[in-house]
Amino acid sequence: MNRFLQRARAACDPLVARRSALFDLLLAMVTTGVELGVFFDSNTRVGVLPVVVTVLAGSTLLGRRRAPLTVLAAACAGAAALIWLGYAPGGGPAVVALASLADLRDRRVSVAALVPTMLYLGLASICSPPVTIGAWALGSYLQTRRRYTRALEDRAATLERERDQLDQLAAQRERTAVARELHDIVAHSVTVMLIGVRGARDVLPTEPRVAAQTLERVEASAEQSLAELRRILGLLRTPDNSTQWRPPPSLDQLTELVAEYRGAGMPVRLEVTGEARPLADGLELSAYRIVEEALTNVLKHSDPTQVTVTLGYGPTRLDLTVEDDGGGGDPAPSSGGHGIRGMRERAAVAGGSLDTRRTVDGFLVAARLPVGGAV
Q: For residue 142, which of 103, 288, 292, 293 is within the disulfide window of CB 3.0 to 4.6 Å?
C-alpha cells in the first residue's frame, strides 16, 4: 500500500508542479492587470515607463515560491519607482508578495517582514495597515492549513506502516508458536520410533512376530511424522530453547475446555457427531486451538445466550463449527485483533480451510481439516 502511494505521488509530482506554475502565472497576470487598472481608471495620463515598471513588478510574482522575500522587496521597489514617477500605485504586487511570504516561509521571517512593509505601504499611502495585516493573515492561514494537511497525511502513512508491521509480527509470532508445538510433536515421534527400532532389534532373534508388530507401529509413526513435516515445512522456525516442553492439548480435552468457558459464564455446549477416533497429534492440536480461539472471540466480542461447539468425525475430514447467537461485533482482523488470522493459519498448516461469517443471529466459525496422511 505504501509503495502504491509513493508511486502515485511520484506520478502526480509533475502535474502538481505544472499546475503550480500555471497558478503563479495567472496570479501574476491578474495582479498586474488590477494594478494597471488603477492607472487607466484615473485621470492621470499613463506613459510607457509606469506600465513597464508595473509589468516588471507583477512579473516578479512568478518567483514567489523560490524567493518570496526577494519578490516582496522587488514589489516594494516597483511601488517606490511609481511614486517617484508621480503615480499612485495600488500596491497589489506588494500585498500578494507579503501573503506569499507568510504562506511559504517561517512565521518569524514573515512577521519580521510584515512590520516594515506595513509601515512603508501605510506611510506612502499605497494601502492601509488592515489590508497589509489581512494579506499576511491569509498567507499565515494557508501555511497552517497546508502543514495540518501534510501532518495528517504523514500520520496516516505512519499508521499504515505500523499496521502492516504489526500484522507481519503477529503472523510471524503465530507461525513460530505453531512451529514450536509441531516441532515437539515430531521430536516425540522420532524418539518413539528410535525406541521401537531398538526394541525390535533386541527381540528379533527370539520373537520375530513381536518385532514385526513393533516395526509396523514405527512405520505408522514415521508416516505420521512425515505428514507433519510436510505441513509445517513452509512455516518452520527455530524453536525457543527457553520454553520447556509440555504435552500439547488434544481433542480429548475439549470437554474440559468447554467446561472452563462454561464456568466463566458462557452458555456453551459440545456436540460430537460421527465415530470419535484418535487422529494425528498435529491435527488434534490445530483443531483444539481453533476451538479455543473461537470461544475466546465469542467471549470478547459478543454476549450470546447459546454457543454450540460441534465436532464432526467424517471418513476423510474433521469438521469443526463454533456458532453463537450473540449478534455481537465481528472479530475480524480489521477490528484490530489477529485471532481469525491465527485460526486460518492453523487450518492451513493442517492442510484444511477456515470459513468465518455472520449468521442471522450471531457469528459462525467453521473449519474443515483432512484426516488422511497425505497433505
A: 103
pLDDT tens, N- to C-terminus, the chain (375 residues) = 445 445 545 545 566 667 877 877 887 788 777 777 776 665 666 677 878 887 888 788 888 888 888 888 888 888 888 878 777 777 778 888 888 888 888 888 888 888 888 888 778 777 888 888 888 888 888 888 888 888 888 888 888 888 888 878 877 777 776 665 665 556 546 656 766 787 788 888 888 888 888 788 777 767 766 766 665 665 555 444 444 444 567 888 888 888 877 755 678 899 999 888 888 877 888 888 888 888 877 777 777 889 999 999 988 899 999 999 877 555 544 343 456 777 888 888 788 999 999 888 889 999 999 986 433
CA distances from 61 to 103, 132, 204, 224, 242 (A): 14, 17, 101, 79, 69
> CA-to-CA distance for 279 and 212, rounded, in angstroms?
23
CA 317 to chain centroid: 36
HSE (side-chain half, CA atoms, 13 Å) at 161: 9
What is the C-alpha to C-alpha distance for residues 322 and 365, in angstroms, rounded to an integer?
5
333: left (phi over 0), alpha (psi -120 to 50) or beta: alpha
User: Could you write out the DSSP letters of every residue in 56-106?
Assistant: HHHHGGGGTTT-HHHHHHHHHHHHHHHHHTT-----HHHHHHHHHHHHHS-
